[in-house]
Amino acid sequence: xxxxxxxxxxxxxxxxxxxxxxxxxxxxxxxxxxxxxxxxxxxxxxxxxxxxxxxxxxxxxxxxxxxxxxxxxxxxxxxxxxxxxxxxxxxxxxxxxxxxxxxxxxxxxxxxxxxxxxxxxxxxxxxxxxxxxxxxxxxxxxxxxxxxxxxxxxxxxxxxxxxxxxxxxxxxxxxxxxxxxxxxxxxxxxxxxxxxxxxxxxxxxxxxxxxxxxxxxxxxxxxxx
Length: 225
Fold this sequence. Notes:
The protein is an alpha/beta fold. 34% of the residues lie in helices and 19% in strands. The protein has helices at 18-27, 50-57, 77-83, 99-108, 127-131, 158-167, 184-190, 199-202, 207-221, and strands at 5-8, 32-38, 63-69, 87-91, 112-117, 138-142, 172-176, 194-197.
């Protein structure tokens, strides 16, 4: 059964002290560090690239869960592999024609492949990527429109999570957008085991308590999936 993994979104961290912030999250109990890569074309924002991942990798052995919101994910595989990314999650909307090649190259560079989908994309589009011989290890269901942090959680996206969990009991299913103490129950009960949380963790007086709460909620409902 898929284990609970809490991944603070470093987009909400203090970028001027990224290594320190990363270690702070790990000390608070984080399992992964979620890195939002935006190119300003696929989404209307520009964040970080491979050089920042490479710099952070020098200071941590943590799992760097990279979510690429970019128009040409194939172009990013080699630089992110060299930089030390652990996971490489691309958007199906940007890879409908070449996802098989993309997955192969991600694996060849030693990274774990994942696929993400926007709220308006039917969940059925990712089934072939989970079931193929060259398959992804993770599906990221966006619970907000990608591009900016601090948005409101979209509970209607939980139908996608439920369908995935029913079809793939051991799959890592990640949710990203508006996750925190008030929304974790909806995500966990639907079947999400990988929880990305930015504002609710970094903005909390005690981030460790929020991380622990979310992990416990996931672990507490796993038997009902």
